[in-house]
Amino acid sequence: MVNEQIKETYKLIKEMKVRGAGRIARTAAQALRALAENSHATTASELYRELKEAGEVLKSARPTAVSLPNSINFVISVAKRNLDKGADLQQLKTAVSEASTFFCQSSENAIKTIGSIGAKRVVDGDNVMTHCNSEAAISILSTAHKQGKEFDVIVTETRPLFQGRVTASILSKRGLRVTLIPDSAARLYMHKVDKVVVGADAVASNGAVVNKIGTSQLALVAHESRARFYVAAETYKLSPTTMLGELVEIEERSPLEVVPAPWLKQNRKVRVRNPAFDVTPPEYIDIVITERGVYPPQGIVLLMKELYPEPDSLSQYLQS
Ligand code: RI2
Question: From ligand 1's centre to the CA of 56, what distance in Å?
């Protein structure tokens, strides 16, 4: 039985009270840390079993963002290594706590680094479009703004949960010039757009990017309009199991996020679908901006192989 805190974290992630691929990864790592610190386990093996069980529960909260299993696998792989080396209970607790802190700090640093790398691609006079709410994409735009670059940002509102409003509000409060548009207006505005910058929930080994629903439509329209299409993705968004042929599962959420309950009742025969993500093929992406540098989508597999040499075992991500 997993403890209350893990159940609470599961709920927060599932109900999207905590959302954004990077944020859910850090939240899961922190939950494992809290579990280790507060556990009543009497042996290291018992604690390890608790961590594994909690990890599986947390991973099941949302199926698409690969940052979630990557962060959990990282913390648990450190625990496993320590257990195998004969760590006692206290040593295991310390190792888990340090691994969690390390993951969270690396994540924050990655977002900053992506900001400074990506900001080089923003120039005075640009019109930059972004979609949904991505810390990595926001980092690029905010960094470019801090550097004194003068540009405009167009934010799509991102139905059904309107996370684009969150982005518009953050950027506007930071002093950027922001226009919010409905998703359906993207093509109308694309002719003035120079660059589109979006985040990622998962990057597959062929360079395809899974991100918030509507991203692939934007990419298609950007391609038609010859606007550049940039993806900002920390390396824990790379999906190692796609190298083994696994597909990224697209989360389908409740129809009640799309239409209210009374409407659904009155229109029982209408099937309402609510896929949370879509897949943008590599040919519509110019570059993937990671904290390890800028990659063409077709080259991302090289980085993936380096960071995840054993894709089907516990993640090697960030291990020294
Ligand atoms: P960062 C979000 O998913 C959006 O799809 C966003 O583009 C992506 O995670 C990456 O966000 P959701 O959790 O990690 O809102 O860059 O469904 O913040």
Answer: 21
